[in-house]
Amino acid sequence: MPDWSAEALRSELMAEAVRRFGAERAEALASELQALAGDLARVAAAPIPDETEPAFFLLEA
Amino acid sequence: MGNESLHGLSVTEAAARIRAGRLSASALVEACLRRIDAVDSHVQAWVTVDRQGALEAAAQLDAEARQGRLRGPLHGVPVGLKDIFHAAGLKTTAGARGFADSVPTRDAPSVARLRAAGAVILGKLHTTEFALADPAVTRNPWHAGRTPGGSSAGSAAAVAARMVPAALGSQTVGSVLRPAAFCGVVGLKPTYGRISRRGVLPLAWSLDHVGVLARTVADAALLLSVLAGHDPMDPGSAAVPPSDLAPVVAAVPDRPPRLGLIVMDDPFRDRAATETRTHLDAVAAALAARGAVVESVRLPALVPALVSAVQVILRAEAGAYHADLHRAHAEQYRPRIRAAIEAGMCVPAPLYLRAQRIRRQVRREMRALLEQYDALATPPAPGPAPDPSTTGDPTFNAPWSGLGLPAISLPTGLALDGLPLGVQLVGAAFGEARLLAAARWVEAAVAFTAAPLEPKEGAPGRAS
After folding, report:
1. Tally of domains in chain A
2. pLDDT tens per residue, range B76-120
3. B173, B398 in Cβ contact below 8 A?
4. What value of ipTM does the predicted structure carry?
5. pTM of the prediction?
6. Does residue B326 sit within a domain?
7. Given CB atoms, is A45 within the 8 Å cutoff of chain B?
8. Smallest CA–CA separation between B345 and chain A, in Å?
9. Does B151 sit behind a cis peptide bond, omega within 30 degrees of 0 on the bond before it?
């Protein structure tokens, strides 16, 4: 089970940003990544029934 | 009515006069062009004014009208386009300062539907860069020191300033309803899949909606009746029969609506200004006094997670769409869109998918609630338009974009600082006829008539 706390996600996002864009750019993204980590943590914590599929397109009435 | 006030006609008024032979398309287009000449140096809503193309189209439409041929319900009516819509021969800039311009050879299907219905495309309107959050140059016609909102900034401001009777916008989170609220006009985002998104630059595929900005609910309904329809080449287009909007366009419904007034729980609780809450309560009381059923309702507990899910999906899909352009032009993006794209590239796939599952789950949980009411009511924004360093907070619009539900914002009063306040009404999926009937009843009951002050040299509206 991965650690999907906001702090763990912030660290994960920062590591990925360093890998993709370099340390300097990742540092410039710090506040954006922190906000995103908060959103990701709320998403991770939301209880969803197992049978619920993703809603790429919401076309049903 | 003299030419000088033709620019203030609504879509339905203008179309009716042209149908009756009491107004020419050319006179109406000329009046809008004069209005643009008079005020757009202050408002800065337009990227491109297609003066020659619009006048030629109007002359052709007038010739057809003289022969008794009317193309459709918008015959001769000028419409503006947010500058992410492709219109043949007009440059699409997406607010991107030259690194992503193109001149399309074909109209987007939505634009083609407008032309087929007789509309005259007047030009392209400013957007925030790639329809995200870096503010556009456009000023709020009510106050030069406030944002018009975004991303459909030029569309809302041009309609508010009476430069064009209606415009197309797009909404991924809150980009039609929020600028409509800040500029004191009507903003309509129909159900996801109602209007083709093809030929409109994407921000986030699964959230992008085409929307309409106008000055009355009837105008928005008329535009939607023209724009709605299945597009088999758009995978997000729904094969659902169009709503019958003719009754909404024709008259105010007799029956007062049933409205569910959404309780300001999380994520709205700490965002709505006291003045906003007080205004919504006053509007609700006035509507109830006129016969509307108004009951307090609570949203599902997952809605705060849904708002976060929308932000996750927006970033992940924008990061995916922009990957190639970003590789070549990273330094040329403005700061907020660049940060969102780069953050989106870092989103873990399992959590992107979980965000998409939240959308479907909340939509299921909302179905019964939406069936009980003609519309749910909330503020469209935390308060009146804030300062222009931001385009405002889209949280009040985000759930309905995430759920793909139809929503409309209409002006209902003025704040203490003289800027517009409004109400946002939300309906069931593909329930636009019911939603817009409720909105038209509310509009008539509230009878909001204020307009921005005439822009003065160097200072539109109440500039300080």
Report:
1. 1
2. 999 999 999 999 999 999 999 877 789 999 999 999 999 999 999
3. yes
4. 0.97
5. 0.97
6. no
7. yes
8. 8
9. yes
